[in-house]
Design a protein that fits this description.
Residues 391-414 are annotated as: Disordered. Residues 398-414 have a biased composition (Basic and acidic residues). The structure is a single chain. The chain is of the alpha/beta class. The protein is 47% helix and 13% strand. Strands 2-1-3-4-5-11 form a six-stranded parallel beta sheet. Helix 5 (169-182) packs across helix 6 (194-207) and helix 12 packs across helix 15 (382-390). The protein is globular, with a radius of gyration of 24 Å. 43% of the residues are buried.
Length: 414
Amino acid sequence: MLTKKTHRIALLFNANKIFDREVIAGIASYLSSRRSQWELFLEEDFRLRLPGIDRWQGDGIIADFDDPAVAAALENSAIPLVAVGGSYENPDDYPAGVPYVATDNFKLIRLAYEQLIGAGLNNFALFSLPEAQTNRWAQEREKAFCALMRRDRLEPQVFRGQSTNAPSWDEAVQQQIAWLRSLPKPVGIIAVTDARARQLLQACAVADIAVPEQVALIGIDNDPLANMLTRIPMSSVVQGANEMGRTAAHLLDQMLHGVRLPASRILVPPAGINVRASSRHQAAKHPHVMRARHFIRQYACQGIKTDQVAEYVGISRSSLEGYFRQELGCSVHDEILRMRLEAATTILESGECNLADVARRCGFTSSPYMHSVFKRELGCSPRAYQKRVLAPQDQQEELQKDDDVFDDRESLSR
């Protein structure tokens, strides 16, 4: 029996970024489904360091070419190489002579734009990044946004702001607030990353701008950490980064086995969009309802009561309840519970397993109470919900059959 050769592969990524982590996860997924034997080189802290890479004696490289320093360092590499990065409007901007797997920047922006159109919005803007060689992907997303605006005969509203750093943070926030206030309302804003979207959500909170009634916001990356750091659950486009990693690994695997690949370009579309509270725009006719929902979105998970919402709005509880019934067909308490439920489902989708901690973080008085709300509103327990959303597609139907039995046992155990 022949022993398969072990190939030494370098993965040149900065895994502190969600995009790079997802690409690496896709590579790992490919390897687990094949019999390929790869010995993977990454820095111990999973960061990217180029010094010495030209002397590395390996069999293949998969690298993030969004960083121009990486592209320059590997320009004359004799080792089989697959590049990963963003798509470009101009074909001449792609690296020459290298198989290239790209996230489709145009489709990322179009998916977010179509979601905002579907929410009934007519004004749109983009929150980008300062122009830099390391931010070329952000400029490509700007181009996509402007192209869509011109197609629909709208004036592009693009704000780049400042890069994030401690000395200029306060000034950056004030600039964001000034820009937000200058926009016609209501407005749908696409941020080029979840990190930028999170900054805008904070700016809206500081400026008391209602989200999503006045500003509906969508980020890109579906970053669980960025979402956990926001008071309002954040909508986000899910990049196809995992699929990009699998595709890049497949291409390199072919090259390692003697297949000669042309300098092909494979554009991977977004995997979907997670629509959460930050972009669920519903035009509120009454200002008291809009103000109340703004307060609820920010503080529902901190255990607020209906009386506190009414006090914030500045009217009696009975008057506020009447406005809610008239406009939304529900009580103030129902809206608070809805926001807590959305926060809980978001945390469970990230893989959190301690239900008591989830209940506490989302403002439920106890884990059994959260269980009863899940059963009433979603027809399943929190644990069954988590198992279903995290399961591979081919296991979804089987889990659905088991849910009733599982729910009954879990309920009895409480």
